[in-house]
Amino acid sequence: MALDSAGGGRQIEDFSHTLARIDTQQQAQKDVFRVELSLLLEKLPEQVRIALNRVCDNADQALCRMDNLSEIYIQRGRKPEAIFADERGCKLRRELTPNACDEHDIALFAETFQGDDTLGTTHRKGVAGTLHRLSIIVHPTHVCAVTKQPRVIGVTARVGRSIHGILEKMAPILLKTTQSLLLIGRPGVGKTTVLREFARMLSEDKGLVVVVVDKTNEIAGDGIDPHPAIGSARWMPVGKRGLQADVLREAVENQSPDVVICDEISTKEEVEAARTMGMRGVRIIATVHGATLAELAHCNERGILVGGQTSVTLTDAAAAVRSDRLKNVPRRAKEPVFGAALELHEREHWIFHPCVKTVLDHYYSNELSAAESLTPGVRREVGVVPERDSFLYCGMCVRSPCSSLSNCSPCRYEYVYVCCARASD
Question: What is the distance in angstroms between the CA of the first residue and the CA of the last residue of the chain?
Answer without folding.
Answer: 5
